Amino acid sequence: MMKRTEMVVVGGGLVGLATALAATRQGMQAVLLDRSARPALANPDGWDSRIYAITPGNAAWLDKLGAWSRIPSQRICPIDRMMVWGDSAEDQLQFAAEDISTPQLGFIVENAALQQALLETLDDAAVDLRFEVVCRSASLSDEAATLTLKNGERINADLLVAADGGASWVRQQAGISSDKHVYAQQGLVANFETALPHGNIARQWLNKDGILAWLPLPGNRISIVWSTERAKELLALDAAALEACVAEAGQHVLGALRLITPAAAFPLVKQTSHALVAPHLALVGDAAHQVHPLAGQGVNLGFRDVISLMQTLTRRHALQGWGDLHLLRHYERSRKTDMVSLQGLTHGLQLLFATEHPLLRRLRNHGMRLVEQSALKKSLIQHAII
């Protein structure tokens, strides 16, 4: 069997789902494939330990797609302020929404809640979603991209979009290589109830022990992401010991903590694909790039990829196909600056705060104080909320 479509998206994560939805909103016929089972419905009585800080710009875009408004308001927590500490309590940066006259710096939302909202919106739009589908091969020609599935079906598309993660099968099939750096740290995630209200403030500590972020959830709850070489040691602790350790690392600013989701850890990787496009192919999200989570911008970067890809496709003239390489080059060029600058910033900060060199420690803490007292702070906030 052969199916013909305008776009086929491989990868059913947040960025893949958003790609299929955005393409459909632009009038394209899209098919989405994922090898995993369709995600279960979000649990209204529990909390997902995988959370994202979504920028106002991306939240507004998701709202235009019809997905954001489907997330229950009681599962979204606005970020009104961000506080960042260096090696001591005196080395501090504060970013407030009011500094740039914006309502919020961002929104904390659970992966499961946002995923469900995107799936429901796609279902309503009657998009062809296929889960538990295994792809056997992918080929690119001057005319189209062709996927051959394990069941023998072939899908012929004007544009194949790889949204299948850092170990992208599509990227490998296309012969696109990448540069990869695996950090010695791992990312530890867990959710806690707090004795004191968090005030819709995102808190982050950068020091020799790693990078610890406390992100506000609705109510007296936080989600943490701790990038540390001690991840295995922390995972081995019982609940009481982990609660005490995380509270101490966060200077007890929210009082006692109570663990409400099991802790988990994931590897930290910086990866850059050598190309983002080929004839009839575009890479988005982690298939295109991976960054250290210290800025919480990984999924935001992926959403900006999709926005840029859709804007590029609107430039297509009547004689161009959706997968025309000259057209897709505009997308690749448009993403390079955002991608490289964010990777450079996160990687550089990780290296700077991992060192124990006395001179570099003085420089990093002095730098934080300079930013706090300068106009650069306002520029940094404006860039972060796009």
What does it look like?
Helix content is 33%, strand content 31%. By secondary structure, it is an alpha+beta fold. It has two domains: 2-44 and 112-180 and 270-351, FAD/NAD(P)-binding domain; 68-110 and 183-267 and 354-384, 2-Layer Sandwich (D-Amino Acid Oxidase, Chain A, domain 2). The strands form three sheets. Strands 5, 6, 12, 13, 14, 15, 16, 17 and 20 form a nine-stranded mixed sheet that branches. Strand 18 (277-278) and strand 19 (281-283) form a beta hairpin. Helix 1 (14-25) packs parallel to helix 3.
Poorly predicted tracts of residues: 373-377
Largest sheet: 9 strands, mixed
The name of the CATH topology of the largest domain is: FAD/NAD(P)-binding domain
Portion of residues within helices: 25-40%
Structural class designation = alpha+beta
Chain-averaged pLDDT: 88
Shape: elongated
Condensed summary:
It contains ten helices and 20 strands. It has 386 residues and is of the alpha+beta class.
Secondary-structure map:
Elements: E1 2-10, H1 14-25, E2 30-34, E3 51-54, H2 56-65, E4 76-79, E5 81-85, E6 92-96, E7 106-110, H3 111-124, E8 128-131, E9 135-140, E10 145-149, E11 154-162, H4 169-173, E12 178-194, E13 201-207, E14 210-217, E15 221-228, H5 231-235, H6 239-249, E16 257-259, E17 264-273, E18 277-278, E19 281-283, E20 289-290, H7 298-313, H8 325-354, H9 358-372, H10 376-384
Parallel strand pairs: 1-2, 1-11, 2-8, 5-13, 11-19
Antiparallel strand pairs: 3-7, 4-7, 5-6, 9-10, 10-11, 12-15, 12-16, 12-17, 13-14, 14-15, 17-20, 18-19
Helix pairs in contact: 1-3, 1-7, 7-8
